[in-house]
Amino acid sequence: MAFQGLIAELALGTEGLTGSANQSKVRPSQLLVAENLTYENGTLQKEGGTSKYNSSAITGTPTIKGGHDWWPTTATQRMVVFASDGKLYKDTGGGDFTVTLASGLTPANALFVEGGKEAAAVDRKLFCFTGVNAVQVLAADGATTAALSTPPTDWSGANQPTGGIVHEGRMWGWGNVNDPHRAYYSQDTDHEDFTGGDAGSVAVYSGVGEKIVGGISFKGLLILWKYPFGIYAIDTSSTTLSAWRVAPISNTIGGISPHGAVAVDDDVLFIDPGGNFHLISAITEFGNLGTSAVSDAQNFAGFMRENSKLSGLTNARGVFYAAKRQAHFSVPAPGSSVNNRRVIVDFNRPDLIRFGFANRETGESLWLRKDTDNVPRPCTGDEGGFVRIMDQEGRSHDGAGYTGKFQSPHLDLSHIQQELGTKVKNGKFLELVVEPQGNWNLSVDTYWDDTFEETLLFNMGQSGSALGSFVLDTDVLSGSNILNKKKRITGGGRRFSLIGSNNGAGQDFSISKFYLHFKPGDERIS
After folding, report:
1. pTM of the predicted model, to two decimals?
2. Which of 120, 404, 422, 456 sees the fewest Cβ atoms within 10 Å?
């Protein structure tokens, strides 16, 4: 017998996570919770797992303050990390970190920059900026680093640059506390020489902000962020160095850290001290007038204020995972002294930037490492001497399960029919559209008017419900690439919400949408 009632499609999470506190303003296709999820395939799916790169912690279990995937030659891959014990370590390819490149350094956050190779016969070099130690330089596949050979006279003692980058063939550096509004550049023929030949420096609006905290080479410009406000572009297009000029992009918006901005596709994404995410193209369109943040469309700044420690964003780390078109930023949770949250910014929809968050690992440092498929994947360094490779096929974290979780808005279904907004809905069935993943369950909690009603278990396997758990006339038993699975539900109310999750080792889900089968009741009078 055909169902005698109404069926409402719940287009689950197509717009990603919102931080809006006004439930009446939350759109039906947004999510109230998006924990350890990915939107990359057009469904809600648990994001890939992690695996430890080093099976044993680095001796003394130090915090990994920075890391880099280092290729001294096209055939040799190493990993270099800076740890809180003041040592630079190099892995020889097996996750052992047995080579100590330098010791006795002052612990600090580290930024690695590739340089050298100014001529065919010159080695590639890896530069390590910390802000408190002389810039360390690793030549090729050497066993030790050395201090930068010819630094600017301003870089001495503890007055050292916090960041740098290669721009237009020169090594640049900035952030030394004795002149925090100045950017220094090397000779183009020697990335270690900041005093000879045509090396020099550029003053960057010393009256604005406290200091330069980050920079990116973008479309022929060197873009520099100041903390807490100020963004500037150094135009180095002229062959006459004296003609180089500094142009303001914004005097009201600023950056947070040397790792707080990442190049994404044909733009630059960065986070400001208030937890807002911006694209540099949107800001330059309006110049010093500024513009709305890209996170405003999802009210995501509210989520950041409630779920991250804004004062700790100076330690935020960002990378762009090009293979999945996602930017990842590790940040601290409220009250945390380490980066134990990760914000995912998804660029897979041309019309909408979507957000999510993860909370399963500590990311005191974050970088990319190229795997055997030549895909650079995110890596994290934690507070216990371990490096982890992210986005692994198995949905496990260090061999254990982790929670993937989503919640739909509290919907009165007025987006389906306006008159439904004032009526009680009596639930009959809940049906989901799923790509089968394995013989385990997705747990779905149902809520009517923000009150828990019941928990339903939907099997994620090819054959529908597990033997002995299916309900006649509701569960699908035959295999398919896309399955519709339906369960009877109870309860009713004006507004309906659901929470889906699973947390077993290796367990995944891939959900396209839900259908709520219901019968309208009377209008509710308070």
Report:
1. 0.93
2. 120
